[in-house]
């Protein structure tokens, strides 16, 4: 299928294994995670991570000299882009076409480690169907003074609103301060509504419904002033070109002494209820996480969409 760049023939150079240089370089001075350690982590989680990451345009946080030095975001292909990655020309708002990157396999993940990528962030659609988002994400950003229990309650509230609209959702501990609630969309019928403007409007309407019910607890606007004592339900992740952290991505966030580097970690709703923080899992937990059942096992079984009824309820056209 020549429409599908993820499955098409891999060029010979892309099959070359990644050579790790400066493997002992420390990327995270608190956890002592090295480039070798990051590559080992990527391999360990690849079976769970790749189905959620492969074929999606990336936004990358690179820390080539470790988090003690400068880190920078990279969205576009450059001279140093690994041969194990693919490129896709994407039209920007201003009409220019720019090369974005995506990966397709475990070598792509290891190549990310090789160039000092600490965080992988994803578009809400796949490179081969760029204009058709296939997930909703609600990024819950609490006022730093709020206890984590409030964040968990907000996640459940989002889940319940989505469930009432016939959408199942899955929680992600971000490895930072908050939780993302993710609802897969498609494949199958309903694709006509699965376009950026509709999906963005749908997510905004869900957030606004929650704010209307609990204006004391939630805000749906970027304004920092309004956020005091509340949780920002960041629905702006559902726009074309916006990103959200990849499941299983490490985080360039302060690690706690004695553990690994924090990761963004999929959990079950039961596990979320028991979690005491958003950064309880780290790179050191990879073997244990891979031994337990996949908390998002049902993610790929969902055949759900923005239904006509749900759109009517929310006033989304
Ligand atoms: P936390 O739980 O601590 O909020 P987070 O990953 O949700 O962690 P946010 O600051 O809420 O962090 O950002 C949400 C998402 O928006 C990120 O995961 C990232 O994909 C995207 N994002 C935020 N800031 C930037 C940035 N400067 N450049 C590119 N993408 C960004
Ligand atoms: Mn957030
Ligand atoms: Mn946010």
UniProtKB/TrEMBL annotation:
The lineage of its organism: Bacteria, Pseudomonadati, Pseudomonadota, Alphaproteobacteria, Rhodospirillales. This is Bifunctional non-homologous end joining protein LigD. Pfam families: LigD_Prim-Pol. InterPro entries: LigD_pol_dom, NHEJ_LigD. Residues 34-296 form the DNA ligase D polymerase domain.
